[in-house]
Write a structure and sequence with these properties.
The chain is mostly beta strands. Among the domains are: about 190 residues, Copper Amine Oxidase, Chain A, domain 1 (2-Layer Sandwich); about 210 residues, no CATH class; about 100 residues, Immunoglobulin-like (Sandwich). It has a 24-stranded antiparallel barrel. The radius of gyration is 36 Å and the shape is elongated.
Length: about 900
């Protein structure tokens, strides 16, 4: 430890303590100094010591403290804190950390740049003791301090001049920083986060290491299981069992499931099987499926399709311009996830009536949109809705195709086939077409079709489609403002066509959805109107819906209006009210009214109570049409390996009881590990991370190298599970054929000398298995030394000197570090090897100094705890002074 006592011209005492392990001693010394000085100089108030007055001198210390800023990772800066509670901060370090433009004058006695906007310039002049910000000038005798080459500013002056407020807590040695404007570093990280989210939607990622898909001829994987029993009073007991197996077969995902019903004869529809293959690096075929496939068809059929489909569109998302809005219904307060091409794009929560709304980004190419539903306690519903995306856009001059064919499992064994292409004419126009075949359509099994999608600007989308012998359709979507969507849909069907089961030759639809925000109230207004035009009459449907939120309150009102020609309409209204208690209870009250008669159709009240790992609910419903009462009790509880539920319903005519349990198993293959979960595992994948100390620096987990325990990592869309038993970090429940970004932080390692060789990984998930990923950790070395300025009488430490580090016999700069205010050199992070350290030649020329020695060679040895090299000492001499000869 080096302690230097300097007495300034104003008899001000200053204590300086070195770097590194000395920080804790400095912090302890500061606290003790403050406590003692507060008692000794209590009567001197808040004014800083004035050297022009004969008063008792104050005491201060220079010390690094932790700074916290909302939206930014915490950082350290140097401060001076005096006995009369004045705080001075190193303004250059602060501004550079906050990314505020900061240019130091040639003599080191001024700082200039601009703040917030380029036209708002500033200059901090330490010689004239003034600050100029725009047209404003602030004079300060004691607010600006220059100490050992560093420039400090008093915190109140920082607030008055720049609008940056510092709240210092000397007990925790921390500062809370707030500003009147958006700091550049906050803006930069906000924009970077937006770019990261956008890049994930577009399929663009930035990672140190990319780990691609592994292909296997066969590899066993995951199992889903479920069992349900349903009993009725004085009736039979129904049983349902489901078993699903997910594997990798012929280099693709192979999933098979079977459903058993005790009261139903086995049907081939109860057997599901699908094989999926994906390789986005291929050109001709990027995706292929075989088995019971799904496809977007013009003709309507409700039987499973067994066949094959191929396409050259990738599974990644490529963001185009614009959005469209979808709204559907599910259970009240359930969480809904939106997936496009198996990639999670967004999630939302249904309101008191079960309504949920998504603003879906328009993406390039053929896309599959899927919805997943989760209950209030995280229970996953097996239902997944695959929705048709109305628009297809392609990048300019790109062509994509899809070919499907197979046989329907209907009574006629109908044959189906479809070939389709889409081509991007330019950025705003995409044209497409093809032919569809369905053998069960006797009067025209072949359906040629053509379509076009136009986006003249991001808020408007126009889609037109013509299917020969079936229909013509046009859709216009336009955003009025930022979020209000107007959609107009017109369809006209050919008389006598048998492809679709519609009885209206012409359909006209108009929809308007508009978000509402009134102070603390937010909600949605939705208006729908449809007219079905027949030869003899026209049928009208209207719907007016209002959904509002206020803190724990939620109200949903929906009115349905139906009428034919000029006949008086039939009107019904549904009103749902929800309130969430802070104690964990949730109250739902709903009623349905016949507006024509002014009478109630039904009323219902439900009370839910969340408990750890489950919830209880009870409800009472009165049906005025049936003159019956329904009482329902429901209990759900989540075990670590399964979800369980028990439900009973009582009414005047019948009583029922049901029990269910479901779960999954995922086999990791090695280490005899089986992941048990209460979520579905078939069709998903996982990652098993093996962090290890890479002693020979080859990036391979060799025999004899030990595992490293880590307790934190970042992966969007996954939940890591850390193991003390084997140090393997496992992340289950990931979507197959999807790339995930995984980030590690060196600060999370138990040894300060250990560093991750790569901190950011992009990993493609293999289906129905845990993918092994080795994470090399290397032991790095640290160096230390001093930079001295040779005076006539003694050598003193010199701060702010640049030290350059190169690989030995190489000229490319590897590392650059800066000496501290007392001349101390320190750097941690050099991999084992031979290096050369020199002082920056450009800076030496500007300062008119020469260094002795000119360079220092050193070696970082390979060690599991990291090597330490000290004694890198440089002495600076003015160029006109003859320095001592360097010793060989």
């Amino acid at each position: 430890m080096r302690i230097t006592n300097n007495i300034s011209k104003s008899n001000t005492y200053c204590v300086h303590i070195g770097h590194g392990w000395r920080t804790m001693l400095k912090q302890f010394s500061l606290v003790m100094c403050i406590l003692l000085c507060t008692q000794a100089f209590h009567g001197y108030g808040q004014d800083i010591y004035n050297p022009d007055k004969e008063t008792t001198p104050f005491v201060y210390d220079e010390i690094p403290v932790l700074v916290t800023v909302d939206g930014v990772k915490d950082f350290y800066i140097d401060i001076i804190y005096t006995n009369n509670n004045l705080l001075y901060v190193n303004v250059e370090n602060l501004f550079k950390t906050l990314k505020i433009q900061c240019l130091v004058g040639q003599r080191g006695d001024s700082i200039g740049g601009f703040i917030e906007q380029e036209k708002r310039t500033y200059l901090i002049d330490y010689n004239n003791r003034e600050i100029k910000v725009g047209a404003k000038t602030i004079q300060s005798v004691n607010g600006l301090v220059k100490e050992l080459g560093s420039l400090f500013i008093e915190s109140k002056l920082l607030t008055d001049a720049f609008g940056i407020q510092l709240s210092f807590n000397y007990r925790t040695l921390s500062i809370k920083l707030e500003s009147e404007f958006e700091l550049p570093i906050v803006k930069e990280q906000r924009i970077e986060k937006m770019r990261t989210n956008l890049s994930q939607v577009q399929g663009e990622v930035f990672a140190d290491t990319t780990i691609k898909r592994n292909y296997h001829l066969f590899k066993a994987g995951n199992v889903d299981w479920a069992l349900t029993s349903y009993q009725t009073w004085n009736g039979p007991t129904n049983m349902r069992a489901r078993l699903a197996l997910g594997t990798e077969f012929l280099f693709g995902e192979a999933d098979v499931s079977i459903d058993y019903y005790s009261q139903q004869k086995f049907d081939n529809r109860q057997l599901q099987y699908i094989w999926k293959w994906v390789d986005n690096d291929k050109k001709i075929i990027k995706q292929a499926q075989a088995g019971k496939i799904s496809t977007q068809s013009i003709a309507y059929f409700n039987s499973p399709l067994v066949g094959l489909t191929m396409k050259n569109s990738p599974t990644t998302l490529r963001k185009a311009n614009g959005y469209y809005t979808i709204s559907e219904f599910t259970e009240p307060n359930w969480t809904v996830e939106l997936y496009i091409n198996n990639v999670l794009v967004n999630f939302t929560k249904a309101d008191a009536s079960g309504l949920f709304v998504f603003k879906v980004p328009i993406v390039y190419g053929y896309n599959t949109m899927k919805l997943k539903f989760y209950g209030p306690m995280g229970e996953e519903r097996s239902e997944e809705r695959v929705m048709n995306i109305p628009y297809t856009f392609m990048p300019a001059n790109e062509l994509e195709y899809e070919v499907s064919g197979g046989m329907l499992q209907d009574s006629m064994h109908s044959r189906f086939g479809k070939a389709e292409f889409n081509y991007g004419v330019d950025r705003i126009l995409t044209v497409g077409g093809g032919v569809e075949y369905l053998s069960s359509i006797k009067n025209g099994p072949y359906i040629p079709f053509a379509k076009a999608s136009l986006q003249p600007f991001s808020k408007m989308t126009i889609h037109a489609e013509y299917a020969h012998g079936v229909k013509s359709q046009g859709i216009i979507s336009y955003y009025l403002g930022k979020e209000t969507l107007l959609e107009i849909d017109f369809s006209k069907y050919v008389e006598g066509q048998q492809a679709t089961f519609t009885h209206a030759p012409e359909e006209r639809k108009i929809k308007l959805s508009m978000p509402v925000r009134i102070r603390k109230i937010s909600g949605l207004v939705k208006l729908d109107y449809s007219r079905l035009i027949y030869k003899e009459f026209y049928y009208n449907q209207g719907n007016v819906m209002l959904s509002m939120y206020l803190k724990q309150f939620s109200i949903n009102s929906a009115t349905q209006i139906n009428w034919i020609n000029e006949i008086s309409p039939y009107v019904t209204s549904d009103l749902t009210f929800s309130y969430k208690f802070k104690s964990g209870y949730n109250l739902l009250v709903s009623s349905q009214v016949n507006a024509n008669q002014g009478s109630l159709i039904r009323s219902k009240a439900e009370l839910e109570k969340r408990i750890p790992m489950g919830y209880l609910s009870c409800s009472y419903e009165r049906s005025f049409l049936n003159n019956d009462n329904y009482v329902n009790l429901n209990f759900k509880y989540d075990l670590s390996f399964a979800r369980t539920s028990v439900s009973t319903t009582y009414s005047k005519y019948n009583s029922t009881l049901s029990e269910s349990i479901e779960g999954s198993l995922a086999f990791a293959g090695s280490n005899e590990y089986v992941h048990k979960s209460n979520n579905s595992a078939v069709g998903k994948g996982g990652i098993a991370f093996y962090p290890f100390l890479d002693q020979n620096q080859n990036g391979i987990f060799d025999q004899g190298e030990k595992m490293v325990k880590i307790y934190y990592m970042s992966i969007r869309g996954g939940r890591p599970e850390f193991s003390d038993r084997d140090s393997i970090v496992r992340v289950p429940d990931l979507n197959a054929f999807t790339s995930y970004i995984v980030e590690f932080n060196d600060n999370d390692l138990e040894n300060i000398a250990w560093k991750f060789k790569n901190t950011r990984y992009q990993i493609m998930i293999d289906p129905n298995q845990f993918k092994r990923v080795d994470i090399p950790v290397i032991a790095v070395g640290e160096i230390s030394g001093m930079v001295y300025l040779n005076n006539e009488k003694k050598q003193t430490g010199l701060g702010r000197i640049l030290v350059n580090i190169y690989k030995k016999n190489e000229t490319k700069l590897l590392v650059q570090t800066l000496s501290e205010s007392d001349g101390y050199i320190y750097y941690l992070g050099l991999a084992p090897g031979e290096y050369t350290a020199t002082l920056d030649s450009v800076q030496m020329n500007k300062l008119d100094y020469t260094a002795s020695p000119a360079k220092i060679d050193f070696t970082i040895n390979n060690s599991t705890e990291g090597d330490i090299v000290s004694g890198l000492n440089f002495v600076l001499f003015p160029k006109e002074v003859n320095k001592p000869k360097e010793q060989d």
